[in-house]
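<instruction>
Derive structure tokens from the sequence
<data>
Labelled lines for chain and fold
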Amino acid sequence: MHPEILVSAIPMGLSLAGWDAHDHGTIAQLLRRGVEQVAAGGADFFICPDNTAHIVLEQIVNTLPIPGLHIADVVMHEMERRGWRVTGVLGTEWTMTGTVYADALRRRGFKRLIPDESTRSRIHHAIFEELCLDRSTPATTALFVKAVADMRSAGADCAILGCTEIPLILSDSNSPLPVLDSTRLLARYAVEEALEEGSLPRVGCWLAPSRAETPDAGELVKVDTSPTVLPNRLFP
């Protein structure tokens, strides 16, 4: 039997101006409205498949009516389960350079690689101007594949697909590294959490993935939080 599912789908387009202006207050209002809608319908917890949105969700989660299952916590647990320690991160510019994955990886002693500035700009543009509009070209796919290949050469042993649309063109079938599809992992873990009997375990205002072992604060490995940024290069 599958769990009951409530959906709030406030258009992301309403928040894009806020992201461009670094206006997290406006974005927070929209995210809060979505969580309040599902909470009013009886949801026990919420998930958000938007990786970038977690930058703001982390700022307001302690004021929301129900706890959330954090997309990066799910991805980290999967990294731990598979024995990977160094990951490349793909997503919007805000996700690649922001704190969501940087902090999640740091807490577990993992290392993060991100593409160079030029490649990040092209990836960000491709997400919003192509993939979000359900279109892409072979050159766009080649851009993402090459970015992963470069991170593999720099020592990554997996790649986080930190954007809902990236799996439209990149998967284990064409990626130079095994991929962690954050959206699908979040959906799978959410179902497992919803089917759990009894109280759901929490770490602060976030749920702990049901199969994860959350270390005590004193057991967390301290590492350099700065990502390794690959050198700039021009792609053909």
Observations:
- The chain has two domains: 12-70+183-216, 72-182+222-229.
- The longest strand covers residues 86-90.
- The mean pLDDT is 88.
